[in-house]
Design a protein that fits this description.
Layout lengths: L1 H9 L1 H34 L8 E10 L2 E10 L5 H27 L7 H32 L2 H27 L10
Antiparallel strand pairs: 1-2
Length: 185
């Protein structure tokens, strides 16, 4: 403990990065596990939507002998279609709704009004989701050949969580500057 206290006293800015980064990774990984659990069970809840292709732009690709439609958003029929995409998006949105206040208040110690921060967070979420989904679309198609669904769901959540974690750390550093708690009179 003395080592940490000395580090904080001698290098306060670096200590803040280490504290925020460490807590950020812990919270993000817990949220990733939560998203994985949701993604494991939610597709069955949306089976009534069927496996109708749902995606954009729907460019046909063949990788490792698997032909599929590459989408920035959505999945083709063979890889879950509308039902899987709906479950995926619900898992991601619920995860971020839990993640936002924990990161804001606990990790980055920000107590500003959240209006603009929510707008920036949603914008970052949309951009990151499009990037991750375009990669995940390939992963789901190719991994589906070689591994069972439970394992590629782990890959999906690790991919989503990993890319999101790196980008969101810097987004959060910008939108959640440390602020003191408001003193109530």
């Amino acid at each position: 403990m003395n080592l940490w206290i000395n580090f904080v006293q001698n290098h306060p800015a670096a200590a803040k990065w280490v504290r925020e980064g460490g807590l950020f990774v812990i919270v993000s990984n817990l949220i990733t596990v939560f998203k994985y659990l949701l993604l494991t069970f939610l597709p069955a809840a949306f089976a009534f939507l069927g496996d109708t292709s749902f995606g954009w732009p729907g460019i046909p690709l063949t990788i490792a002998g698997e032909t599929f439609d590459w989408n920035i958003l959505g999945y083709d029929q063979a890889h879950g279609g509308l039902a899987y995409f709906t479950a995926y998006m619900i898992a991601m949105v619920i995860g971020e709704c839990v993640n936002f206040p924990i990161q804001k208040l606990f990790v980055f110690r920000n107590h500003d009004k959240p209006g603009k921060q929510i707008a920036w967070y949603v914008a970052a979420f949309i951009v990151i989701t499009c990037i991750v989904n375009s990669i995940n679309c390939i992963w789901v198609a190719v991994a589906g050949i070689f591994v069972p669904a439970w394992l590629y769901n782990i890959g999906t959540t690790v991919l989503n969580g990993g890319v999101s974690m790196v980008v969101f750390f810097f987004v959060n550093k910008i939108i959640f500057p440390e602020t003191p708690k408001a003193v109530e009179a």
